[in-house]
Amino acid sequence: MPWVSLNLEVDATWAESLADALLDCGALSVELTDADAGTPREAALFGEPGEATQTLWPRNLLSALFDSDADPAKVVTAACEAVGVPVPSELSTTPVGEQDWVRATQQQFGPIEISPRLCIVPSWCEPPIPTALVLRLDPGLAFGTGAHPTTWQCLRWLEEHLRPGQSVLDFGCGSGILAIAAKKLGAGRVAATDIDPRAMEASRRNACENGVLVDVLTLAALHGECFDVVVANILANPLKVLAPVLSQHTRPAGNVVLAGILQAQERSVRAAFAEWFDLTAVYPRDGWIGLAGQRKSQHDARSESAHRR
């Protein structure tokens, strides 16, 4: 069944309210995007827990989808009156025909070359480098298809620094991509954990489809266990809170690899881990920075702690 799409430019002060009202009045779906996308005024929005963050753009493009037999003008009028904003004087709609949505989605995701040695390939694609290690991963509910700079930073570190037989913990595993990559790169024991049950299930499934053994466990099940390498691709604020936990799971002289950090957040993350690690910035990309470092000895950690007090 075909549909009808309607676009409106809306101000940030009432964009979300109007979007909610449109859904209440009969729109099938509503999407808000940057009206300045593709221009020099385009702006990226980043948010994370514990940090006040801009959630909308100054100018927003509201796209609403309706059934073909709906009256979009009537719905928009009712939604505007409910919110208390003027009804646009001109409205234009665009027909949306039937599509093979599976094929359309697949066309958005192709192989990702991490390096000549490592690539991520959806199940419907052939590897672009026949000799590379291939991570088979399809997009799903859990975060982590390899396209984001922070995932790339962790994968590059693993590829360049992981030694055969080392144990690895993927903390906040998402899709399990880092754990799977570590195993394919020659790691020994590999464990993965996440607070989201869907992520843990996705990691188990993806590990199985890649033919590797990854122990996907709750954090409680990992109590007291230490690893040669701990990788955490989360966000800066959670990383700072988790610094003691990540240090406890890293062996002395082991390595931690952190990602999900904007360059402006580098100093505060370094400070949060300074008692246990000397961190170095790695692989800056698109405004994101990775941090990696070796676990200090207990003597060094005690000296650092006493110095800070």
Explain the overall architecture.
- With 309 residues, this protein is an alpha/beta fold.
- 31% of the residues lie in helices and 28% in strands.
- Strands 10-9-8-11-12-14-13 form a 7-stranded mixed beta sheet, sandwiched between helices.
- Helix 4 runs parallel beside helix 5.
- The radius of gyration is 23 Å and the shape is elongated.
Q: What kind of sheet is the major sheet?
A: 7 strands, mixed
Task: Enumerate the spans where pLDDT stays under 50 for 5 or more consecutive residues.
Answer: none
Number of helices: 9
Number of strands: 14
Helix content: 25-40%
Arrangement of strands in the largest sheet: 10-9-8-11-12-14-13
Indicate the overall shape. elongated
Oligomer: single chain
Mean pLDDT: 88
Structural class: alpha/beta
- Beta-strand residue percentage: 25-35%
Distance between the termini: 68 Å
